[in-house]
Amino acid sequence: MPGEISIRHLEKVYDDGFRALSDINLEIQRGEIFALLGPNGAGKTTLISIVCGLVNASGGEVMVAGHDIIRDYRGARESIGLVPQELSTDAFESVWGAVSFSRGLFGKSPDPAHIEKVLRELSLWDKRNNRLMSLSGGMKRRVMIAKALSHEPRVLFLDEPTAGVDVELRRDMWAMVRGLRESGVTIILTTHYIEEAEEMADRIGVIRNGEIILVEDKAQLMAKLGSKELRLHLQHPLDAIPDALNGEPVSLEADGYDLIYTFDAQREQAGVARLLRLLGEKGIEFRDLQTRESSLEEIFVGLVNRPSAGVDAATTASPSGVNER
Ligand SMILES: Nc1ncnc2c1ncn2[C@@H]1O[C@H](COP(=O)(O)OP(=O)(O)OP(=O)(O)O)[C@@H](O)[C@H]1O
């Protein structure tokens, strides 16, 4: 079954000959929160702009809520709410006026009850008569979201929704996005805050140099590509790794007092038990131990910095989760 958003063989070559997207294939299901991660210039905004009908594709096909974005532009566009990166608001307009006007742009009849609901959810109700220029940056960003939701879209794009906003607003926005998902809205967000993707996303796509290099359930991604670290604080420092541990993924830190064992998050049991047995046999005692899992940030940095061959190896390691659905 095609997803709420279905992208097939999408290509973008800008007029100056720059290839910004190459053979993008992606299915996003109804009610998902999908985070698109990638370094600066990877092609995130280009991809979103094509799906939203703001930039023309050079090839391929995109369907949104069953509408082809070219053959049925209007149907596709009406299904989408877009919160762009740049704040652009009409300074002299009131909050209520700006949000109501946005709804009208999509040819929807006025619905004051819906506008009120959106403004209340975004804590903008008390400011509804304020001019936009009198609002703080965070409030203006809420207005951008209210505008994007004014015509009751099925799909919401958030292009770096929390760039430059304070922690409190960021958390409010996360709660709001979850609430929207519960009402059946499909959400695609780009973000530079890995914490945001870790906190919010059901699935994560990583884009690099205009290519999707990985699409994976967040939990599976963290389990599959993440590593764990076991740090043993030794009773007596070691000068060097003992011969018995040669070939094991271990290193020494803290002047030989800490023995670090890094292992695949999926194979932990057998490896740790073997390490502890070897240490016991060699009479190496420890007084404390800690374990730590790699964060999504470490996984992401590892992925985007990996040479292409390495990326392929990572994605083909488990074909079941990659670029499917
Ligand atoms: N109009 C344009 N003409 C030529 N090249 C462009 C144009 N717009 C974007 N690009 C190039 O396409 C590439 C992808 O840009 P895009 O804005 O999609 O990246 P991004 O992943 O959104 O980056 P960021 O995280 O910095 O917002 C960049 O190299 C950019 O310079």
Could you give the topology of this structure?
Layout: E1 5-13, E2 19-28, E3 33-37, H1 44-51, E4 59-64, E5 67-68, H2 73-78, E6 80-83, H3 95-105, H4 112-121, H5 137-149, E7 155-159, H6 167-182, E8 186-190, H7 194-200, E9 203-208, E10 211-217, H8 218-225, E11 227-234, E12 250-253, E13 258-264, H9 268-282, E14 286-293, H10 296-305, H11 308-316
Parallel strand pairs: 3-8, 3-9, 6-7, 7-8
Antiparallel strand pairs: 1-2, 1-4, 4-5, 9-10, 11-13, 11-14, 12-13
Helix pairs in contact: 3-5
The structure holds adenosine-5'-triphosphate (ATP).
The site of adenosine-5'-triphosphate (ATP) has 12 residues, from helix 1.
Kindly summarize this structure in a few lines.
InterPro entries: AAA+_ATPase (IPR003593), ABC_transporter-like_ATP-bd (IPR003439), ABC_transporter-like_CS (IPR017871), ABC_transporter_ATP-binding (IPR050763), P-loop_NTPase (IPR027417). The protein is an alpha/beta fold.
